[in-house]
Amino acid sequence: MPAPRVRIAPSPTGPLHIGTARTALFNYLYARRTGGTFVLRLEDTDVVRSTVGFEADILDQLHWLGLTWDEGPDAAGGDDRGPFAPYRQMQRLDSYAAAAADLLARDLAYPCFCTPDELEADRKASEAAHLPPKYIGRCSALTVDERADRVAKGLPGALRFRVRADKIRFDDLVRGEVEIDTANLGGDFVIVRGNGTPLYHFTVVVDDAAMEITHIIRGEDHLSNTPKHILLFQALGHEVPKFAHLPLILNPDRTKMSKRKSQTAIADYRAQGFVPEAMVNFLSLLGWSIGTEEEILTLDELAGRFDLEHVQKGGAVFDKDRLEWLNGQWIRKLSSEELIERLLPFLEADRQAGRIDRVPAPEELRPLVPIIQERLPTLGAIGELIGFLWVDHVTLDPSMLVPKRWDRATALAGLRAARETINDSVGAVTFEADALEPPMRALAESSGWKAGDLFMAIRVAVTGRTATPPLFDSLVALGRDRVLERLDAAISTLAGVEDAA
Fold first, then answer.
1. Spatial separation of the C-alpha atoms in residues 200 and 355, rounded to whole Å
2. Which residues are catalytic?
3. Beta strands 72-73 and 80-81: pairing type?
4. What mean pLDDT comes out for the span 253-264?
């Protein structure tokens, strides 16, 4: 048996979304597991919506995920590589025209001159009769002279494929035996528009046959298209590939995930700071079971163990909490240098958005790795976690400076006492967490305060936030001078509020 040939064929009419990425991943894993060939083809015949920008996004996000293909374009607008080039449909129009002419010559397809008004009237008649829409075959038996007469009148003729009465059976590698009656396909269907543009059902079959694709692994939403494709493969005289239809990706409420209602673009998750290792790990488990309790798997490990036998039939729920958990696990696995390198672009984005005033140098980040690596759910959370280190002035909400069990006077006394203790008891040389904590706890005890209340007032004063990494690590990261400076500013703010009151 020849090695499998599989493909992913996205349409560059939008950014790469979760569903296409998952399908690409499963095709990639199957090819690598079986020693096969993974082909990337761009279905760009929708000239109105297809753009080079969307093409670039698709290719860039696939590369970001770590997926490589053996044949196809490597860059937007770039050259193709592979024995079946070109791999863009708009550069393959001659092959579609030749296949259409062949079907027409053998009367397996025919020109249809039905107007939009006629087709709409037929649809409404079917609807009134409570029947599914179906082409009634108005043009299927036109004589040569009748066709010529319509052409002479300037009527545009689409090309329809003749659907024979039959029951199409195929063994789906995920779903088992499937049978669909061609009576449910809506009648003879258009394969080439009146303007000469070929349609999806036709081009995908012509291309899959020309590129010798042996296994078509795609989403369940294409299951109803498969009988049409099998009929076209047979009519064109090609061997029918094997099919595997992957389960739909569902929202947590088990509704179908859609581009309109859900966050589906891979680029959006990338921008939030999800790492590719986690995204690949997560997508691989959307509808496939490894058969063990293992959860953290590299792309290479997945490629060594993937099979279609363990792809589930039921819908796969997209659980973002699980994705975040996996993302955190992969962040923990990064070396310090890798983490710093990946964090810098997100810090630059925070600077550009005005959330921080400067981007720290790698040497400033290095000592912080131990306190942030275990706490980052995403790389993009770095600014929220410790962005207070790189702002010139903290914006303070006076009400936040007062812990729930304190009043303003107590908060002001607590901050003044904390400032005095740090200034008098902890010098610049000994400004470390283990030197700061004991005198602060002693201060709370001697004053009759709960340590948590004192620590919260200090935390808000120096960071502007109620949640940060451990307080004393945060103070050390800020440095003694800035801590004192921010305590002074907080004391002044709170005193001003009291004076106004």
1. 46
2. 259
3. antiparallel
4. 80
